[in-house]
Amino acid sequence: MTLYGIGLGPGATDLLTVRGEQRLESVDVVYSPGRLSRRVAAEYVPESKLSDLEFPMTTDSDELQAAWKTAAAEVAPKARDADAAFVTLGDPCIYSTFGHLRRTLRDEHPAVDVEVVPGVSSVTAFTSVLGVDIDAGAELTLCEATDGAAPTGPNRLICSK
């Protein structure tokens, strides 16, 4: 059986991919790392299929490692016996808790098969919202705001969290 890491898109329930929707409908349990991803997933699966995983918002590596191991230990038996999903906003491979869970499963539970179902990330979704065309010669630069002041320049400024 398989654990699917499903990207839910940037938070709008209508931006889930067709493949993501199909996988959500086919799995036995859907794990969510937070309220917003749970809200999006609940549009596609019954509440009885949803299960929450806790991940601390900290930079303490020991606490993070422990949380990832705990989550992997909960997910692994279900994913060995039936299809399961871990949902995340955006794409599972871009700044996502899923990457930590996938690596921990690989190291601690290598018998679990994992498949990524890509999602629309905010990195690409913002272009539609702001009407920005990225094409040959387009230049995007990521800058962090200093003391809350947005960096400015001659080209468009795009801020993404």
Major beta sheet, specifics? 5 strands, parallel
Spans where pLDDT lies below 50 across 5 or more residues: none
Shape: globular
- Beta-sheet strand percentage? 5-15%
Series of H and E elements: EHEHEHEHEH
Number of domains: 1
Description of the structure:
By secondary structure, the chain is α/β, with parallel strands linked by helices. The chain has one domain (2-123): Cobalt-precorrin-4 Transmethylase, domain 1. It has helices at residues 18-26, 35-41, 61-81, 97-108, 122-130; strands at residues 2-7, 29-32, 50-52, 84-88, 113-117. It has a five-stranded parallel beta sheet, with helices on both faces. α3 (61-81) crosses α4 (97-108).
Layout of helices and strands:
Layout (H helix, E strand, L loop, with lengths): L1 E6 L10 H9 L2 E4 L2 H7 L8 E3 L8 H21 L2 E5 L8 H12 L4 E5 L4 H9 L31
Please give a quick description of this structure.
The chain has 161 residues and is α/β, with parallel strands linked by helices. The chain has one domain (2-123): Tetrapyrrole methylase, N-terminal domain (Cobalt-precorrin-4 Transmethylase, domain 1). It has helices spanning 18-26, 35-41, 61-81, 97-108, 122-130, and strands spanning 2-7, 29-32, 50-52, 84-88, 113-117.
